[in-house]
């Protein structure tokens, strides 16, 4: 969430920056509400001061044996007016917080301004696209003989958009997850296994609510109001909500494996079939709490950890710095790591590393303290490390052989009992 003091200090410049993410944003309604709130708060404070003054005078007059009915009536009237004003303020404050929380984070000054993802800037490439000497197959065609997934039976039990892995498909998925966790732990990340269902305030803290309420899976009954996490970022961000972390403990580097749940499953069509976009997918997440001056260094470390996984797998990828209009709601800077999928003839994101500055920390009230100084908001960063579904597609399609078999990357073989190939 943005600091209202920052918005007040230069509303036209803040609005201009916000519009590079969403051109429809106008700060006028928020600023009018802010002004009204401040006026009413001032009035409420004045009323309460008068009430206290009269109450004190009543006590003095009573001790002197004087009549106080008129003053007591006045105090009663003031109290009634103050109570009514407090009720108005509660409604206005709720509306104010709703409007403020719907504003995205400000992009950093060096981010390219555009609404078109085609303008994203490729800043690095590693490896090369595979040149096939035979007619290659997409992952669904390969699966017909390999039997790694069963989309028909998963649709039978859950509907479209829910995957079911089986046999070597399930084992290969776990191999990827174990390899990624091992890599991040070696790179200094602490492993967590957080809950998959979290409270509303936890989802709000990460920036998913209120704007993206309709994209969440939720459990609402008479006993629980919980949300299925769309990413482990939500849970990891909430670990230190309402805490003050000692400065010497920062940065905190966390990693977690979780299934992720999202209502939107993407557009229909051959490019979105199979594992490309699902309601449920597996992901290993990276998350960092850090001092503001160290957040750029943490960003580079997280990006390097994500890249190391793809390099170990021998999969060609590219890094793209996202333009303002393509960044996520809470991000100030984002680099997507994209792999090329031959069966789709395009690049797809398998990791997105974002610096959210103090945006999430202000929502979650996650702070740090240097010695006896006043607490400051931390910076938070998140990054996929990696999402397995598209990575699985990349692995299968790029490692296929002419006979339909799949060569397993060497780094995964120890998790598969030394298996070198998946045979039809």
Whole-Å distance between the termini?
52 Å
Largest sheet: 8 strands, mixed
Structural class from helices and strands?
A: alpha+beta
**Roughly what is the average pLDDT, rounded to an integer?**
94
- How do the strands of the widest beta sheet line up side by side? 1-9-10-11-14-8-7-2
- The CATH topology of the largest domain, please? BirA Bifunctional Protein, domain 2
Radius of gyration: 27 Å
How many structural domains are formed by the residues? 2
The proportion of strand residues reads: 15-25%
Structure, explained:
Belongs to the class-II aminoacyl-tRNA synthetase family. Type-1 seryl-tRNA synthetase subfamily. One of its GO terms (cellular component) is cytoplasm. The protein is an alpha+beta fold. The chain has 2 domains: 4-101, Helix Hairpins (Orthogonal Bundle); 117-422, BirA Bifunctional Protein, domain 2, CATH 3.30.930. The protein has 13 helices and 16 strands. The chain has helices at residues 4-9, 11-19, 28-63, 69-101, 139-146, 151-158, 167-186, 200-206, 232-238, 295-313, 359-364, 388-398, 410-413; strands spanning 121-126, 190-192, 197-199, 218-220, 225-228, 244-246, 252-261, 280-290, 317-321, 333-341, 346-355, 367-369, 376-377, 379-387, 406-407, 421-422. Strands 1-9-10-11-14-8-7-2 form an 8-stranded mixed sheet. A hairpin with a 4-residue loop joins strand 4 and strand 5 (225-228). Helix 3 (28-63) packs antiparallel against helix 4 (69-101), helix 7 runs antiparallel to helix 10 (295-313) and helix 8 crosses helix 9. The longest helix is centred in the first third of the chain and has 36 residues, at 28-63. The radius of gyration is 27 Å and the shape is elongated. The model is unreliable at 266-270 (pLDDT under 50).
